[in-house]
Automatic annotation (TrEMBL):
It is found in: Mitochondrion. Keywords: Mitochondrion, Ribonucleoprotein, Ribosomal protein, Transit peptide. Belongs to the mitochondrion-specific ribosomal protein mL45 family. The lineage of its organism: Eukaryota, Haptista, Haptophyta, Prymnesiophyceae, Coccolithales. InterPro entries: mtLSU_mL45, NTF2-like_dom_sf, Tim44-like_dom. GO terms for cellular component: mitochondrion; ribonucleoprotein complex; ribosome. This is Large ribosomal subunit protein mL45. Residues 70-224 form the Tim44-like domain. SMART domains: Tim44.
């Protein structure tokens, strides 16, 4: 959904960087992507970068180091949030995946603001502003499974007093996504009830852990990582970019 280094790619035929493009049809059966540089407008609300950007299949040694670092991070996290458990967070991540998708489909800016960090929200808001008037979008998830891949804790170089935790999650979902024009005609989308679209994404969720910050605040979407997906699966943006070309 969101990528820090490059939110949008404007190069024709290039791999889409954000699932927001999936929900922005500029003309029937054609999708426009935008470039927006990330900004950190409020120091207390988000970390400036994604810590130790996750990449799959790095080999046994790298995988072991990543697992060890994640385990230590979880131990530190539970000192601040004793209620944190892996099974519970997987449910939270799956729920937020569906909430973000539904909010994008209905152009619910208020909900998106609550579900995402400021930089991620700005990119999504821009995509909604570019959506043609009269378009109607439908997002329905039939199954969503979340798998935690990495946990990291860190802080901004200029704000040592503010600690953040970031959890990278692999999202595997079956969904239905439809776009209809002003007259109700189908102009794009992917999947249906009998053959849902399989989406595979890597999301980074973030939360502030510092004293003086409301620790009851919900986890928020920080970024969608631009990672190659397994054979037989795809990112929703990749599928959206193919609409009208097959």
């Amino acid at each position: 959904f969101c990528v820090m280094r490059r939110w949008w790619s404007s190069t024709p035929g290039s791999r889409p960087s954000s699932c927001c493009a999936m929900l922005t049809a500029v003309r029937p059966r054609c999708f426009q992507r935008f470039f927006t540089a990330p900004t950190c407008l409020q120091r207390s609300l988000e970390l400036g970068i994604v810590l130790d950007r996750f990449t799959p299949d790095e080999g046994f040694v790298s995988g072991w180091r990543r697992w060890t670092a994640s385990t230590l991070a979880i131990v530190s996290l539970r000192r601040v949030l004793p209620e944190f458990t892996v099974p519970a967070f997987k449910d939270i991540a799956a729920s937020k995946f569906n909430e973000v998708g539904a909010a994008l489909a209905t152009a619910d800016v208020s909900t998106l603001r609550q579900l995402t960090t400021p930089s991620c929200f700005q990119a999504m808001k821009a995509s909604l502003s570019a959506r043609p008037k009269g378009q109607r979008h439908r997002w329905h998830s039939l199954r969503t499974e979340a798998r935690i891949k990495q946990v990291r804790i860190g802080h901004n170089a200029s704000s040592l007093d503010l600690k953040f935790v970031q959890v990278t999650v692999e999202m595997d979902a079956q969904l239905i996504w439809q776009i209809r024009g002003a007259k109700g005609e189908m102009i794009g989308g992917a999947g249906d009830e009998s053959n849902p679209f399989r989406a595979n994404d890597y999301w980074v969720f973030e939360r502030c852990l510092s004293e003086g910050v409301d620790r009851s605040a919900a986890w928020r979407l920080k970024e969608r990582l631009d990672i190659a997906v397994p054979k037989g699966a795809d990112s929703p943006t990749d599928k959206a970019n193919q609409v009208g070309t097959e």
